[in-house]
Structures are given as structure tokens and as C-alpha cells.
Amino acid sequence: MIPGPTPVPEKVLHALCKHPIGHRSKEFQTLIESTTKNLKWLHQTQNDVLTITGSGTAAMEAGIINTLSKGDKVICGENGKFGERWVKVAQEFGLEVIKIESEWGTPLNPEEFKKVLEEDKHKEIKAVILTHSETSTGVINDLETISSYIREHNTALSIVDCVTSLGACNVPTDEWQLDIVASGSQKGYMIPPGLSFIAMSEKAWEAAEKSNLPKFYLNLKAYRKSLLSNSNPYTPAVNLVFALDEALKMMRDEGLENIFRRHNKHKLAISNAIKTLNLKLFADEKYLSPSITAINTGEIDAEEFRKIIKNKFDILLAGGQDHLKGKIFRIGHLGYINDRDIMTIISAISKVLLDLGKISAQEAGAALVMASKYLDSK
Description:
With 378 residues, this protein is of the alpha/beta class. 44% of the residues lie in helices and 16% in strands. It has two domains: 10-254, Aspartate Aminotransferase, domain 2, CATH 3.40.640.10; 256-375, Aspartate Aminotransferase, domain 1, CATH 3.90.1150. It contains 13 helices and 13 strands. Strands 1-9-8-7-4-2-3 form a seven-stranded mixed beta sheet, sandwiched between helices.
């Protein structure tokens, strides 16, 4: 139960086992036609959604290098490990970065974005780069409000890391007029790592005509051109596309609202059960990600706690990153996760705390009752 790779449904595993077919064949073109249609549905967009063989970082880098030019001024939101990464990527390509920061575990303040954008009278800021669901801390940022301020600026593009939010909560790309939305296959898509996806608005394509940053494999114009014939400019991960097709069909069968409701229910079940166990949430309850919950273990070494959970119950939890290592552990509840999984991890955590003498049997039972309350909600 980590935030990725996430569990893979049996149907999707079977799809992976198919014999590869030629990626220039009519059969593969039919497959791409199907996945493209369903990717647009998932992104809630009428615009292009491109598939790249690479991780979510590849999609984010592609969004940056295809729409910006050396020396461009950009805002980067940084309140966790992945916000930090986009600052590094932007700086690597010679962009002038204005950082808007928030302490790890707290959300980015939309009003700070508004202030910087409003002060940009000469429209020098060309993009705002941020993470929607910050996987390293379990915080979700207010993308809807921040994107509204970007739209008011009228020049800057929004380049958004939706790697652990897409397929877990509402990301209405067209309604919020998001320009570039990046995601990865091993998260809400319920398939193994290896594919990334990037939704591009018309405004983003207009910016691509002026971009002078170097690109070859990640040149999105080539992907857009090949998509016109339901193809790919380079050899794709064919079997991952088989898996993607099956996973997207499963998601359509469940329906967007049901997917979002399930993730929210699991978030509430875990966060409220954790409080019953006398542990603290790392992030404020108002800003919890629907995909991952970070837990502050206090005097308990989080790495040692994770080891016990793994050895006793064969459940893998994620650890803290950088300065948070040993201080927090993270429970992934993203993608192919059901109510039984939630009850199992709460039971495992309760048993370990009970064995360590940190809680009573009554508190362990109360945590399961609390989780059940939210799992049984409509």
C-alpha cells in the first residue's frame, strides 16, 4: 500500500500477457483509438491527450520543454519532494524560477500565486508549474483556485503534475482550463510503471510554436502528428498499452463519480481511524490527498514501524523522504484498492501498536469501528 506502483487488477495482468503486436499494424491503431477516447474521458477534455513511453517525470519535462524557451520566467510551487523536482527541471533548462513555497505538510497558498501574477504587469511570467497531489506529504493543493488566478493573468500557462490526483479526484481539465496535465501509469491508472500521459490545450500548442528548448524524443509535435493516424512516433510499450486499454474500460464501468467517491471514502476511513490510534496526521485534515495519507509517528521510529508491518503482515508502506525519513510513514490508497484493503492495513497498524504497548485493545477495536463507519457511508 504505497503510492505507486499500485496494485494491478487481474484483468489488466492478463492483458499484459498478450503476445506483442506490431505498433504500425491496423490492430494497434484500433487499440490507440480506444485508449485515446477513454483518456479524453478520464481527463474530462476535448483536447489532445498524448501517451509517452516513460514515467510521469517524462510527461512533466515534456510539458516544460515543449512550451517554454530559455530565459522564460516561471512560477514553481514547492511544498514537497515533487515541487522541488520541478524547480530543478526548470532551472536545468535555463528558466528563471520564482518559487512559491510552503512548509512540507502544508498546502500552497493560492493568494501568493495571485499576488505574484497580478504584479506581473508586463506579462513576463510564461508558466506556473505545480503539483496537485504532493505524494511526499499527503497534501492536496487547491488547483481549482490557483488555476483561476492563472487564467486571469491571461498569458501564463498552467503546467500541472496530476500524477497522484488524476483518477482519484476530480480534475476537470477543460472546465478549469488547465493547459498541461501530466500523469503516470502506475498510479490511478492501475497498470505497471512505464507510460505517462500529457493533456495539451490549444493555448499550450500555440506556445509550442515559439519554444526553443531542445527536444527530440519528447517533442510533442511528433506525438500529436502521429496521433492523427492513431499511431506513435517511436516504438511504444505495446503490452502496457494492452493493459491501459483494459484498465480504462474498468474505470469507465465504475464511472468517474464512483471512482472519486471511493477514494474519498478510503481517505476518510484511514485518517479517522489513525486518530483513534493516537497517531497524528502529518497534513491538516482539510488538505488531505485522496491518494495517500502521511502519518507522524512521534517517538516511534517510522522506518522500524514499516519493517515490522512488512515482516509480520507482508504489507509495504512508504517511508518519509529526505528530512522526514524515520519521522513519518505513508499509506497509499490509490487505484485498485478496496474496502478490505483499508480494513487490513488498519488492523495491521493496530496490532503493531498494541504489541508495542502504545494503545489498548479497546482503542484497536475502536479504530476498526471508525474505519467501518466511513466505509459503510454512501
